[in-house]
Task: inverse folding
């Protein structure tokens, strides 16, 4: 088998890349025999490695060569690829996020030679969803949850009592489980409130930037004179990841930072005397950003704790979202590009992405090929896909597809399947956007006969299959 | 000391950092400096994606192939309808790795993982159809799938032979994870280490047969538990800049 050596060299290997930057470099190939290359592709993207299930994303792919290399030939190809906007580069204990350039030579009937080179990315801006998701659950939600628990406990007691009367030993078993559980929940929630009254705590800002303070409000009005050992706030940073799936799913947690602050030492609080604390907890200037990459998360939390002697303590955890605010953090590597040029690029990049997202809905004459192109380009960006699909939902198009395979089972709850009809996986002609086609029974012969040939159909967009990243199209007879 | 709290009431309170367990973050340090000494670009015993898991699986597919089809003179595989092969075994013994290895070698195969306590996902036609955690197939859907007659390769905790036979399948079963030799474990682990190698021209620490024997003594045939243990060993060594050794 011919040997094909691949190597990648970045123009600026030490540079810290930002949102909207391009990474430039050269991929070199050296062969010891003639090699027919179906394509030398170079890809920029990110991936996780470590304890958690792998998450990854692609920013841009380019094919820089296809053809024949002669024996002993050494060739170099330039590339310039977009850098993924998010997540930031991170090297930890359980979670690692690596931005990379991958090169791959597609060789027929042989293992594809590969090479990879990592680089560092520190984004100036997180995706909009990260900022939106930084709010704590609303009060309504929390109250509804507590009400649900209380009602559930009441029903368990009623059930246990009824069972105890009817079948004493069953009632005893239920009571043995339910009573300790109820006492435990009561100890955690109700008992501290008997001493402290209702304790209110909240984060003032939705997100905080490294080097700034996370502002927290804590207030309560004791119902009686109460001694306390300590009131404290503990800021922690932790990697939380999940490995395996289903019954093999395991969560791993590695705490890499802890800073405990005492707000009040041992004292006695007077009944009816309202206490309010405005906390400003410093986030380290070199703190890594929070991120949530499916099974690989980096979380910052503040745990508020009121230590009551000889009584269950009160505590609550608040999630702090440490995110970039659009400017360069002061602690960063001095090897950065000039700030102004970075910011300019960033703004233009954001503007561009908005234009892409907004374009299709405004055009009444849009073709399926255009829709498929937009979706294909945005397929790694969930929010943009949602936006695009929403825009074309219910629209009917002519399209050419290649049938991949029919489904033996398409999901019981799938309302799009025709009665006695079929669900079929297919892909669009160009770009090769994956599709789920809902085919009426009458067209069964037609799609069976299509085989691997192009099949012209007319269909209505009915949704997006998140699990398999496919556009759902209902075929019209 | 940082002023972290201001009580609205006039009384001042003592502020002190009772505990601080932080360090200067080095989360942005390129791996080449942290892992260079070990000639690795990542921890070899972390989770792998599906493709790489299949690529690195140490499995002999011949028996499996013979059970549901045959190998053609040109080396390609041909599968036959109404034939099923099921892998039975406990967690961490390599059932999923084998299934993924099948996918890698058979372009027409389709893989479906059935999650726990969730609705059954879409099940595409495949030749063969590979189903992981097949014991979770709801009865109605199981009948529908088995009725199709497609060749099946199943990983399951429960023997599905009766259902398969009723649907007209001839079934071959294999129980895996009953034995594990040091040589095989050594191959499994070293394949992962080599796949995480940074520089092909520099040496890399590897697992010896003696190391593997000691790991089997400690963890039995649970390869997942062995990999988990080794992840921590490697991580600790790299973090402390110590020489990477797997067994002391």
Result:
């Amino acid at each position: 088998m011919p040997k094909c050596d691949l190597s990648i060299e970045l123009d600026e290997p030490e540079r810290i890349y930002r949102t909207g930057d391009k990474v430039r470099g050269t991929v070199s190939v050296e062969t010891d025999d003639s090699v027919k290359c179906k394509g030398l592709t170079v890809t920029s993207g990110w991936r996780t490695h470590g304890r958690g299930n792998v998450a990854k994303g692609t920013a841009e792919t380019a094919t820089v060569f296809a053809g024949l290399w002669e024996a002993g030939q050494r060739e170099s190809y330039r590339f310039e690829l977009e850098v993924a906007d998010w997540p930031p580069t991170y090297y930890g204990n359980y979670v690692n996020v690596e931005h990379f350039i991958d090169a791959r030579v597609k060789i027929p009937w042989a293992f594809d030679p590969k090479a990879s080179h990592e680089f560092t990315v520190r984004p100036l801006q997180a995706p909009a969803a990260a900022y939106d998701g930084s709010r704590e659950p609303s009060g309504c939600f929390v109250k509804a949850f507590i009400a649900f628990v209380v009602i559930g406990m009441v029903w368990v007691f009623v059930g246990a009592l009824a069972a105890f009367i009817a079948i004493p030993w069953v009632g005893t078993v239920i009571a043995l489980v339910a009573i300790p559980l109820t006492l435990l929940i009561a100890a955690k929630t109700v008992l501290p409130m008997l001493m402290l009254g209702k304790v209110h705590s909240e984060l003032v800002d939705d997100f905080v930037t490294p080097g700034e303070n996370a502002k927290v409000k804590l207030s309560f009005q004791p119902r009686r004179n109460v001694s306390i050992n300590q009131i404290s706030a503990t800021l922690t940073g932790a990697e939380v990841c999940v490995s395996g799936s289903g019954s093999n799913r395991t969560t791993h947690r590695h705490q890499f930072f802890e800073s405990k602050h005492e707000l009040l030492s041992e004292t006695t609080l007077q009944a009816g005397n309202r206490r309010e604390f405005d906390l400003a907890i410093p986030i380290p200037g070199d703190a890594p950003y929070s991120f949530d990459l499916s099974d690989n998360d980096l979380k910052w939390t503040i745990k508020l704790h009121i230590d009551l002697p000889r009584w269950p303590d009160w505590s609550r955890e608040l999630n702090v979202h440490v995110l970039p605010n659009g400017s360069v953090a002061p602690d960063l590597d001095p090897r950065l590009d000039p700030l102004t040029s970075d910011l300019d690029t960033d703004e233009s990049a954001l503007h561009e992405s908005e234009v892409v997202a907004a374009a299709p809905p405004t055009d009444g004459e849009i073709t399926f090929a255009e829709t498929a192109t937009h979706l294909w380009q945005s397929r790694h960006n969930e929010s943009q896909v949602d936006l695009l699909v929403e825009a074309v939902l219910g629209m009917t198009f002519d399209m050419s597809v290649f049938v991949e395979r029919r489904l033996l089972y398409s999901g019981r709850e799938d309302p799009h399947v025709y009665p006695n009809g079929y669900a079929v996986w297919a892909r669009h002609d160009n770009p090769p956007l994956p599709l789920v086609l809902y085919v009426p029974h009458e067209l069964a012969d037609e799609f069976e006969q299509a085989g691997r040939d192009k099949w012209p159909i007319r269909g209505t967009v009915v949704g997006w299959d998140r699990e398999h990243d496919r556009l759902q199209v209902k075929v019209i007879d | 000391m940082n002023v972290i709290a201001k009580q609205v009431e006039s009384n001042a309170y003592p502020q002190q950092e009772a505990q601080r367990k932080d360090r200067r973050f080095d989360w942005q340090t390129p791996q080449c400096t942290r892992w260079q000494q070990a000639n690795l670009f990542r921890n070899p015993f972390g989770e792998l994606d599906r493709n790489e898991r299949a690529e690195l699986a140490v499995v002999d597919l011949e028996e499996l192939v013979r059970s549901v089809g045959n190998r053609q003179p040109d080396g390609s595989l041909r599968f036959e309808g109404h034939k099923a092969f099921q892998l039975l075994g406990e967690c961490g013994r390599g059932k999923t790795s084998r299934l993924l290895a099948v996918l890698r070698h058979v372009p027409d195969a389709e893989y479906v993982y059935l999650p726990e306590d969730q609705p059954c996902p879409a099940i595409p036609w495949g030749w063969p159809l590979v189903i992981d955690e097949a014991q979770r197939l709801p009865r109605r859907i199981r009948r529908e799938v088995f009725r199709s007659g497609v060749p099946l390769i199943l990983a399951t905790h429960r023997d599905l032979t009766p259902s398969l036979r009723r649907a007209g399948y001839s079934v071959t079963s294999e129980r895996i994870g009953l034995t594990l030799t040091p040589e095989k474990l050594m191959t499994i682990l070293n394949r992962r280490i080599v796949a995480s190698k940074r520089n092909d021209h520099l040496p890399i620490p590897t697992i010896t047969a003696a190391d593997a024997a000691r790991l089997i003594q400690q963890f039995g045939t649970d390869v997942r538990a062995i990999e988990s243990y080794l992840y921590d060993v490697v991580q600790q060594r790299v973090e402390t800049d110590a020489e990477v050794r797997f067994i002391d």
About this structure: Chain A is about 25% helix and 40% strand. Chain A touches chain B through 68 residues (CB under 8 Å). The longest helix of chain A spans residues 168-196.
